[in-house]
Design a protein that fits this description.
Helices cover about 30% and strands about 20% of the residues. The protein has about 600 residues and is α/β, with parallel strands linked by helices. The chain is elongated. InterPro entries: C-CAP_CF_C-like (IPR017901), CAP/MinC_C (IPR016098), CARP_motif (IPR006599), TBCC1 (IPR039589), Tubulin-bd_cofactor_C_dom (IPR012945).
């Protein structure tokens, strides 16, 4: 997998021959979670500016690490952007033993700083352009489609999520293999420049004047790794004929950079051929289940199972008008993608390193604990609940985020009517999962969003005039009176129960007061029902009226009684939750009056 831990990297022996069928793959994380839409970080002059930056930073610090203040001066950017840059590098670093990965709060990150050579590689790939979707070779072909003035990047700049499903356009979106090949092609073109940034100069002439040591070569692990289907990652230095089996006490001598470049280009070409051979039969034959379009009326948990690649993320894809619960045992690897899910409730109760939510609408999505980064993109009317180290929100509309995050939420692109609120749920293994991936319960910066530009310079599509300098619309805080707790039912959880009994994040005073008021209101309603003195006929009328109001509400929220009668848990979209169903819902009786119970909300809603 592209996000395997350093321990896994070291446990796998290096391939001994070409027959071992190992290939050189790109790491997805820097390209999916590491691109920042900050124009001053994009250098289109090859290595000229970055070589000067390298000299400046190395001459000012003997430790080869720089903090945000130094970086801000060198790049002439605000300190908060420099700090964001270092935090982003920390979230996509390949080496978990780097002290920057273990750093928590911003002041710790500043004290440790980022390694200069990791910084150079990161800055170089800011010139990367994302793959254009299939079927849209000319971006002008979609210029007149909704929304006409949007700066949305990618294919969804032309279609809203619902339009995307109804037009059956999923097949035109890039596949994982296409994106992988696109990333490799980019590296094939630029790997020579990247090597020159990592190399040291000698007194030789021409190509022999640049040499690469083993420790500098290891920084290429930021972008590339050796592995194969079902295998762990292999450290790059142990996969080469130059540095393999070298003694740490007696490092291998530096080798000419030109020799390393030839070896890399040969392996990249081999992998591109491998990907092309693997993809060609799929293009000529029937598509796989993960690529098929699913009609909204037919989708359900029984017909859609998560698809995954041993090297890539687990997919929860195409869920419609249904609910889906996934535990750690249901996922392959430590990253997950929720793609094109509509009018549904998705629970991923697992510890993850990376997560992506893409192209979803009218859904509630609960993602347990994310230790590196979560990205939410091209979503409409989605309620997301997550505990994560960091989150990036791009090109979303009318979404509500209940967050427990250790770093400031990053908001980029064309967003409208976003709201943020403090984290509002728990499940029994939540704190165990948070500890496992490194999410700190004592830090929650949910209400400190940082906004960047509307236009993403990594987008391959053109944008309307006049938006290049516009600032993204930020998110507003949810009114405390509208804050509600979501209770995840214990039948959703795994057999191995944990110790978490309540929300691990402390609530701000205004939201805590609202929570207590709602609990008090619920208790008072129950007390009134207990004490109500009514004749039997009046009690039946009250029960009937309560049920009728609930059914009307349920119908308005896009469900009918037939759907409700035949599932164990289902979604409701006024309160955005799910509930156990027994003859439409579970019931409680107070003083002979039967009323509807909503076990997933501990406070009033809907």
């Amino acid at each position: 997998m592209s996000d395997s831990t350093a321990a896994e990297q070291q446990s796998e022996p290096a391939p001994t021959s070409a027959a071992a069928a190992y290939h050189l793959f790109p790491r997805r994380e820097p390209f999916e979670h590491g691109l920042l839409p900050i124009p001053k970080l994009i250098f289109n002059d090859g290595t000229q500016t970055l070589s000067q930056l390298k000299s400046t930073l190395l001459s000012s610090n003997s430790t080869e690490r720089v903090n945000s203040d130094t970086l801000a001066r060198a790049l002439q950017i605000p300190v908060e952007h420099a700090r964001l840059l270092i935090e982003t590098i920390s979230s996509v670093l390949h080496d978990d033993s780097d002290p920057l990965v273990k750093a928590g709060v911003s002041n710790e990150i500043d004290v440790i700083g980022v390694h200069v050579y990791d910084l150079l590689v990161f800055l170089y790939i800011q010139s990367y352009k994302r793959l254009l979707p299939k079927g849209h070779k000319d971006s002008a072909a979609v210029a007149d489609v909704w929304p006409s003035t949007s700066a949305f990047d990618g294919f969804l700049s032309a279609l809203s999520p619902l339009q995307l499903v109804r037009s059956n356009s999923r097949r035109f979106m890039p596949s994982q293999a296409d994106e992988e090949a696109h990333q490799l092609s980019y590296l094939q073109k630029h790997i020579g420049n990247i090597l020159s940034l990592l190399a040291d100069s000698t007194e030789g002439e021409g190509d022999e004047s640049l040499v690469l040591s083993m420790d500098k070569f290891e920084h290429l692990g930021f972008l590339l790794y050796f592995g194969e289907k079902g295998s762990a990652k292999i450290p790059l230095s142990q996969s080469t004929p130059f540095f393999a089996n070298s003694d740490p006490d007696m490092p291998a001598v530096p080798v000419p950079a030109s020799q390393v470049l030839d070896w890399l280009l040969q392996n990249i070409s081999s992998t591109l051929e491998y990907i092309a051979d693997r993809v060609s039969p799929k293009e000529n034959g029937p598509s796989s289940s993960s690529d098929q379009d699913v009609q909204m009326s037919d989708a359900g948990t029984s017909s859609l199972k998560p698809s995954s690649s041993p090297r890539g993320p687990s997919f929860i894809e195409g869920i419609s008008k249904s609910s889906c619960v996934k535990q750690a045992s249901d996922l392959k690897g430590t990253s997950a993608k929720v793609v094109n899910c509509h009018e549904s409730v998705i629970y991923i109760l697992a510890p993850l390193r990376y997560a992506t939510v893409y192209g979803c609408s009218d859904a509630t999505i609960v993602i347990g604990a994310v230790g590196k980064a979560i990205r939410v993109e091209h979503c409409e009317r989605v309620h997301l609940i997550t505990a994560a180290r960091r989150i990036c929100i791009a090109n979303c509309r009318e979404c509500l985020f209940f967050l427990g995050v250790n770093q400031r939420p990053l908001i980029v692109g064309d967003n409208h009517k976003l709201q943020v609120a403090p984290y509002n749920t728990f499940y029994s293994q939540l704190e165990e999962h948070m500890n496992q991936v490194g999410v700190d319960r004592s830090i929650n910066r949910w209400d400190e969003p940082m906004t960047l530009g509307v236009v993403d310079p990594h987008d391959s599509l053109s944008h309307p005039a006049g938006v290049s300098d516009a600032q993204a619309e930020s998110a507003t805080r949810l009114d405390p009176d509208q804050y509600t707790d979501v209770v995840i039912p214990n039948w959703f959880e795994s057999e191995q129960a944990g110790s978490t009994k309540h929300n691990p994040f402390a609530l701000p005073d205004a939201y805590l007061a609202s929570q207590q008021k709602n609990i008090k209101n619920l208790v008072e309603v129950k007390q009134i029902l207990r004490e109500t003195q009514l004749e039997e006929s009046r009690k039946r009328e009250l029960s009937t009226a309560l049920h009728a109001c609930f059914k009307d509400w349920l119908y308005e929220m896009q469900f009918n009684s037939h759907t409700c009668m035949n599932v164990q848990h289902q979604a409701t979209f006024g309160s955005f939750t799910a509930y156990k169903v027994n003859n439409c819902c579970s019931r409680e009786t107070e003083n002979g009056i039967s009323f509807l119970s909503f076990p997933l909300y501990s406070t009033t809603s809907g």
